[in-house]
Specification:
The protein is an alpha+beta fold. About 35% of the residues lie in helices and about 20% in strands. The protein has 2 domains: about 120 residues; about 80 residues, Immunoglobulin-like (Sandwich). It is built from 4 helices and 8 strands.
Length: about 230
Amino acid sequence: MAYFVQENNGLFSLQITIFSEELPHYQTLLGFNAAEVLEAVNDAAFMAWMEKCDATVAKYKLGWKAFEDTGRGGSKTVLVLTPPVAPVFDAMPTLVLPGIQMRFAQKAAKAKANPNCSDGIQKILGIFTAPDAAVTTAPDLKVKEEAGYPQLSFHKYGHAAINIYRNTGTGYGSTPFKTLTKSPFLDTDLPAIGIAGQYKYKGIFLVNDVETGSFSPEISVNVVGR
């Protein structure tokens, strides 16, 4: 059976936001009290705030990395160094205790245990667990350019991790470039400043520290050192 809790922080934030918005409609039917509903609302708001702050920090980090690289190595196009603007966060919502996912899972378990909670209601609440249609044996690895760096994305489909192999022009080698448990991943290891090239990647699932299944199709992206 597939686990219904989203792993990616952004998707998890969206999931519990939908849950908190829909739960009041089924509060009485599923036996939730006002305090539990309010807790779900506060947890969702706080998770959304943390995720928005995280995106702001990530954008600033990329800007700072480019600023640092230019400061050290110079640039043909950038003549004056301008530091990126420091991030400013929205006001923090109601502070919650650690364990947002745990509390969400507990509420979901309570709802699922109620005989009134049909598959249709579970789908509306975003907590439906469906049988896996098929076992995915090869990762669906994707790559795109993000602020001048290759960004890899993938879905683990219940596996523990994924081993990434990289070919920068000299072959893949026998050992993985990275072992990843979260998506996306930003590869900031570029060639020397001004040097252009092509990075190729392939991935394979990892279960109990053992590579399992088959390699993904090879993907590639053009890079330039900075």
